[in-house]
Design a protein that fits this description.
- The complex is a heterodimer of chains A (479) and B (799).
- Chain A is an alpha/beta fold and 479 residues long.
- Chain A contains 13 helices and 15 strands.
- Chain A folds into three domains: 36 residues, no CATH class; 369 residues, Alkaline Phosphatase, subunit A; 57 residues.
- With 799 residues, chain B is mostly helical.
- Chain B has five domains: 103 residues, no CATH class; 141 residues, no CATH class; 167 residues, no CATH class; 60 residues; 99 residues, no CATH class.
- Chain B is built from 31 helices and six strands.
- In chain B, strand 3 and strand 4 form a beta hairpin.
- Classes of the chains: A alpha/beta (479), B mainly alpha (799).
Chain lengths: 479, 799
């Protein structure tokens, strides 16, 4: 083909043609993929959503260990009626949902009373008095089914859409889809529990098959939140600036000697971003700038609530600065919500750790006019069983229940006060069809303006999606 | 009856008569089939269940096919609608709900019930065409066309060039001029060994005016022990190599023996067919050597979950399925893994064929039950390290000595006639106690994870929907109908391995040369390197791909010979500069009118800095090592893991030897797009992020490299001009221009000034490596300069 004899094509046409010239649909898809990822060299540039929506950013609160749904959010009188007696076998508890269990599976009553709160009259535990004050802002989904009844796979499933390691985190997907508004900070930030690591390790905020630009950046405690953020000891900002000026001068000359070196341009930009990040990230984590009232709102005056309060307050400061996705992890080591034993003794502590911080976050976002633009999600990796799992007989606890996960959402685009899904009288599983977790992921994407079918990445011959075979958007919780 | 009416009826009568002859004597049934069932099957079922697609193994185009059934067994049982899968599926009463788009109308379901109840009457007329033969290019035999004629024959250095140039000439696009010697030297050194050329090598190459200087250089690089490290690491990406189990517990495991086997095999230029056979089925070769057993570690690199309360069988199945998918991606370039839950959507690979290949791998003697928990890594083999061998020998000697002494003591007792109550003899008690204590202190020996099949074979069957708990029909080890058949003597992995590299299999050589090409040019001749199926990209130069594939086989599968061919070609030796004329016509450089700029791979960023700094420990192989890691990087694992940071020579080993924890990979690797080792990685993405800049600017390891480079410059050269020149040669493989030199000089002077006023700062920046420097401010200023050159785009990029 002689290109010189044909009318000039636009660059876009040329790209499309040369891609289609490769043959298969997969090749054509690569073009869309690149378009979605923005210019290859500016992976975090903000991009418009697929559909117009209100929520621009997401704070994902993850309670690790398996939160007991019937102790916090589901009113089940049968638990009181049957307390201490053997669980009726007709409830389908045999086998699949009770990995650790053996008979007699005695029913445990709620660890604390539940009461109806807010205008919606939603049931909520008295262990969450602060969350109760914002109950009308929240929309609940009950009876969600997770693919696995063990923590590791279930955590992967909740946070990456697949129970096996290696997939992209939900935060990576969202950042891949939307880029980020603040170029001086990572687009996807993870706030770990200061007491220890999450069960899935770095994989739960990993980029999986997506480019590394979308991997979550773990913020650590202290004034060096990012790995290698700090300049080498005693290297002054001025000295480093001098280095970077020289580097930029050399790289610029190198670039000028060639045309079309967009990735070289990007490298030069990345150094400037890194330099700014060194200044912006410590400022971001400096909570000294917050008023006494705000600190109190997040429970920083209560030593029990302060650690997660700090994570929640940081999350607000991040979304305020345009960070696209913040994941705050709660629960680590022996302090996870995995209450196999002594649930009565342990639940009040978990609740006190998060109640004030989470309620404070919702209130603070609202007061600052940010709640409308922010999606707040609360999730765990599974629910729990109504009965004792016989591990500790004198201080009973509940077993895992992969059919009992509760997720709530609040903020932009969420129908405040809505409830979807219902579990049976013992909260063993949904009364109708179980709600697959991918439905929740599809809904989350939609609330952020992303369509699951369009947010794809070609990997190993498959168009990978967060929702795998596709989920149903739960319209019932959308405003 | 009028004649015309009779004519209208006649075909139906004939049809009925024909049907009556072949089917239950019920012409009404055939009419019912024709009027009601045939349109229903055509509209609702045959789209997927035709002889070509056989979705779930089932075709519904004939009575026989329906009776034969698919992956779940018979499709229908004549006369028994309730027990027929077809009826259960359309009633949507079980887990199978058909058709997938939505339920049939109640009257349609009733009609199907009635039809099955009638005994499945069928007409002779065919319902669907026979399965079409596949014509997709990748499944055809490798064709070896002679390299084409070209106009500009003077440009041609190897036959490869003819294929590339012929296409360029067709597009009237001239190739780019050859890269300058320094660029070429750095490119080929990095591509073949992953290390930049040393200044002495640069000088020698520049001074070598022989016409074959470049070819001599290539020979030297191909025989370098670092060649095996560079190309071994590429292979380890495919092998999903890591030093720990993965999942949540993520215990360390010994896989480095396998890693070293790969390096050795590549350095020896083991023929690629043998390389494949030993890794897939080394244990099944006659009298396998220890090396051949270690090679089978290839498929033992799958992650393993040993969490409490898991279903072991689920994770064993997951590993086996990964081996099938990996075999597809690595050797066949097919997305075989897509057929795990259903027939492949695009390629002619059925779910049944997935499980036929699964069956080859299904017999590994891996843990599948809680009772076997203590032995969770099996199958393994003991391979003591030299130190362990010494310790074990010492132990054995000691054990033998104590045993001998005990025996002698007992004999002595016997001689004295004191054996009546030997248990009460204090001397004997003492000796028995010592021996027991020694026994408990038997030194542990390293084990390697290997492949070994179990004695009692497992059943092989289709897993419906990919679910290991849902059994479909039984299958036998076997291949894909679209490819040449696998000669299955015993249906073992060895049969599979031999088939992968048999002369009749067109895919393995094509996929292999394509991946090598990808490493030399940034992308393959087939851009979708892991998908040669119908959805993948077509080759940009199909004749070249086939020529190279044929050449690989003809040259006894020698990897080095193909690499030599490629790097000595004119197309490889071109400049990488983007030309406006070429960019307009060919923005993605598919026609290869130039070379490509590539950011260094994660490990090579480290290696190149280590080499420039002079700190590199060039040792090849051995247990994985623990170079400095950023503070807090190991805090992300669920089970607390140690990172015993190396202080000696192991602190400066190449990046491929860094211990790889799956749950907490070294940030210096992951930030630069190293794969996470959960699945086979056939191509790394190359991203560009500020976190990469932070690593290079601030990471302890890189500060140390800069100090090393500073020390080296001060030591090896005596004046600043020569030092600057050397700094650039070491980091960027070229001398600075005079303008650059000038600017660097003034930077150096300014920094020296600053450090002289603040000697304390200088001492800090100089660090341990600067401790001996006589002139600390000077050392610190040079460290800063070294930091700049180790961040240059020239440094990070292979042009």
């Amino acid at each position: 083909m002689d290109f010189s004899k044909r009318p000039p094509l636009t660059r876009r046409e040329l790209l499309t043609r040369s891609y289609l010239g490769l043959g298969g649909l997969a090749a054509a898809h690569l073009l869309g993929q690149e378009a979605r990822a923005g210019r290859v060299d500016r992976p975090l540039d903000p991009r418009p959503p697929h559909v117009p929506v209100k929520a621009q950013r997401c704070i994902f609160l993850f309670m690790e260990g398996g939160v007991s749904q019937m102790d916090l959010f589901e009113h089940k009188p049968a638990l009181l009626r049957m307390a201490g007696r053997q669980m009726p076998p007709a409830q389908g508890t045999e086998g699949e949902i009770a990995t650790f269990s053996a008979a007699p599976n005695r029913v445990i009553p709620p660890v604390a009373p539940l009461r109806q709160v807010g205008a919606s009259g939603r049931w909520m535990s008295t262990l969450l008095p602060q969350l109760a004050t914002v109950a009308d802002e929240l929309a609940f989904i009950h009876g969600i089914k997770v693919d696995n009844n063990n923590h590791g796979p279930a955590v992967y499933h909740t946070l990456t859409g697949s129970q096996f390691p290696g997939s992209a985190s939900v935060g990576a997907w969202v950042t891949y889809g939307l880029g980020s508004e603040n170029q001086d900070l990572p687009g996807f930030i993870v706030l770990g529990d200061p007491r220890g690591a999450t069960i899935g390790g770095a994989g739960v905020w990993g980029n999986g098959y997506l480019p590394a630009a979308y991997q979550g950046t773990l913020f650590r405690n202290g004034d060096t939140p990012i790995v290698d953020l700090k300049r080498p000891r005693r290297l002054t900002p001025e000295a480093q600036r001098a280095e970077l000026d020289l580097l930029k001068w050399l790289n610029d000359r190198h670039r000028d000697a060639r045309t079309n070196a967009s990735e070289l341009e990007a490298r030069i930009a990345a150094y400037e971003l890194a330099f700014r990040m060194q200044a912006k990230a410590p400022e971001l984590v400096d909570l000294g700038q917050e008023s006494e009232a705000t600190r109190k709102l997040y429970g920083l005056d209560d030593p029990v609530a302060a650690p997660f309060g700090r994570q929640c307050l940081l999350a607000r400061r991040m979304v305020e600065r345009g960070v696209r996705f913040v994941m705050a992890l709660h629960g680590a080591g022996g302090d996870r919500w995995d209450d196999h034993g002594d649930i009565k003794g342990r639940m009040p502590k978990h609740c006190r750790e998060v109640d004030q911080p989470v309620a404070g976050l919702v209130k603070d976002l609202k007061a600052r006019g940010l709640l409308d633009e922010t999606l707040v999600v609360w999730a765990s990796e599974m629910g729990r069983t109504p009965f004792d799992n016989n591990l500790i007989t004198d201080k009973p606890g509940r077993d895992h229940n992969q059919y009992g996960l509760v997720v709530w959402m609040a903020g932009g685009g969420v129908r405040a006060g809505a409830t979807f899904g219902e579990t049976d009288e013992f909260s063993v599983r949904a009364t109708g069809d179980p709600i697959p977790l991918r439905d929740v992921h599809a809904t989350l994407l939609r609330l952020l303006g992303l369509e699951q079918e369009r947010l794809t990445y070609l990997h190993a011959g498959r168009y990978k999606k967060l929702t795998d075979i596709g989920g149903r958007i739960i319209m019932e919780v959308l405003a | 009856m009028r004649a015309s009416t009779l004519r209208n009826f006649l075909p139906l009568l004939l049809l009925a008569a024909a049907a009556a002859w072949a089917q239950p004597a019920d012409p009404g049934g055939v009419a019912f089939f024709e009027s009601t069932i045939r349109p229903l099957l055509r509209a609702q079922c045959l789209g997927c269940h035709n002889p070509g697609n056989r979705s779930s193994g089932l075709a519904m185009d004939s009575r026989e096919a329906l009776l034969e059934g698919g992956n779940r067994g018979a499709g229908a049982i004549p006369g028994q609608p309730e027990d027929s899968l077809l009826i259960q599926a359309v009633l949507r009463s079980g887990d199978l709900k058909m058709p997938p788009a939505g339920p049939l109308k109640p009257e349609q379901v009733e009609a199907l019930k009635k039809w099955v109840g009638m005994g499945l009457p069928w007409s002779a007329a065919p319902l669907a065409k026979k399965k079409p033969g596949t014509t997709h290019w990748a499944f055809q035999p490798v064709k070896r066309d002679a390299p084409p004629a070209v106009a500009n024959a003077a440009w041609v250095r190897t036959p490869i060039d003819r294929f590339i140039l012929a296409r360029l000439e067709k597009e009237r696009l001239p190739p780019s001029p050859e890269a300058d010697r320094l660029t070429l030297l750095r490119r080929v050194s990095l591509d073949l060994t992953g290390l930049p050329p040393a200044p002495e090598e640069i000088a020698a190459f520049l001074a070598d005016s022989r016409p074959d200087a470049y070819e001599r250089l290539v020979e030297r690089l191909l025989t370098s022990p670092h060649y095996g490290e560079r190309w071994g690491r590429h292979w380890l990406d495919l092998a999903r190599y890591a030093d720990s189990d993965g999942y949540t517990i993520d215990s360390p495991r010994t896989m480095w023996r396998y890693r070293d086997w790969v390096i050795r095999a590549i350095n020896r230029d083991m023929p690629f067919d043998q390389f494949v056979i030993e890794q897939i089925a080394g244990d099944l070769l006659p009298n396998p050597t220890e090396e051949q057993l270690i090679a089978t570690g290839f498929h033992r690199n799958t992650p393993s979950n040993f969490e409490g309360g898991i279903d072991w069988e689920q994770y064993r199945v997951e590993a086996v399925a990964d081996r099938v998918a990996t075999t597809g991606a690595v050797f066949l370039g097919l997305t075989v893994g897509c057929a795990r839950c259903h027939d492949h959507k695009y390629d002619p690979i059925t779910q049944k064929e997935f499980y036929q290949m699964f069956a080859f791998y299904n017999q590994a003697d891996e843990i599948d039950h809680e009772d076997d928990r203590p032995d969770y890594w099996r199958p393994t083999m003991e391979i003591p390290t030299p130190e362990e061998a010494v310790r074990r020998e010492a132990f054995r000697a000691q054990f033998r000595a104590l045993s001998r002494e005990l025996v002698q003591y007992v004999r002595a007792l016997a001689r004295r006639g004191d054996l009546a109550e030997p248990g009460k003899d204090p001397g004997l008690q003492e000796r028995v106690k010592n021996l027991r204590a020694l026994r408990r202190s038997e030194p542990k020996v390293t084990v390697a994870l290997v492949m070994r099949d179990r004695a009692t074979p497992r059943e092989n069957y289709i897993h419906l929907g990919g679910d290991f708990l849902r059994k479909g029909i039984a299958v036998k080890p076997g291949g894909f109908a679209v490819l040449p058949p696998i000669e299955t003597g015993g249906g073992t992995r060895l049969d599979l391995a031999r088939w992968l590299v048999s002369p009749t299999n067109p895919l393995t050589p094509r996929v292999t040369v394509n991946r090598w090409w990808q490493h030399f040019f940034g992308k393959g001749l087939v851009e979708t390197e892991n998908d040669f199926g119908v959805m993948g990209a077509a080759p940009t130069h199909p004749e070249l791909l086939d020529w190279l594939a044929g050449e690989l086989v003809a040259r006894r599968w020698s990897m080095k010979e193909i690499h030599r061919l490629i790097v000595t070609s004119a197309v490889y030796r071109q400049s990488s500069k983007v030309r406006d004329d070429a960019a307009e016509v060919d923005p993605y450089n598919k026609l290869l009118a130039r070379q490509t700029r590539l950011r260094l791979d994660a490990e090579i960023v480290r290696d190149a800095a280590l080499a420039a700094s002079g700190l590199l420990t060039p040792a090849v192989g051995g247990p994985s090592v623990y170079p400095p890691i950023p503070e807090g990087a190991m805090s992300v694992t669920q089970v607390k893991r140690e990172w015993p940071t190396a202080t000696g020579a192991d602190r400066y080993r190449r990046g491929l030897y860094t211990f790889f924890w799956r749950s907490a990979p070294h940030p210096g690797l992951i930030v630069f797009d190293a794969p996470d080792a959960t699945q086979s990685c056939t191509r790394r993405v190359r991203s560009n992020t500020p976190l990469q800049a932070l690593t290079l600017l601030n990471d302890e390891a890189f500060v140390e490299f800069a100090q090393g480079l500073a020390a080296r410059l001060l030591r090896e050269e005596s004046d600043d001009g020569a030092r600057l020149r050397r700094a650039f040669l070491l980091a960027a493989g070229r001398p600075p221009s005079s303008v650059e030199q000038e600017r660097l000089q003034s930077f150096l002077a300014a920094q020296l000034d600053a450090f002289q006023t603040e000697p304390g700062t200088a001492a800090e920046l100089a660090g341990q490596l600067g401790a001996d420097a006589r002139d600390l401010p000077r050392f610190a200023a040079w460290t800063q300069l070294a930091r700049v050159v180790l961040n240059l785009d020239d440094f990070l990029t292979r042009e």
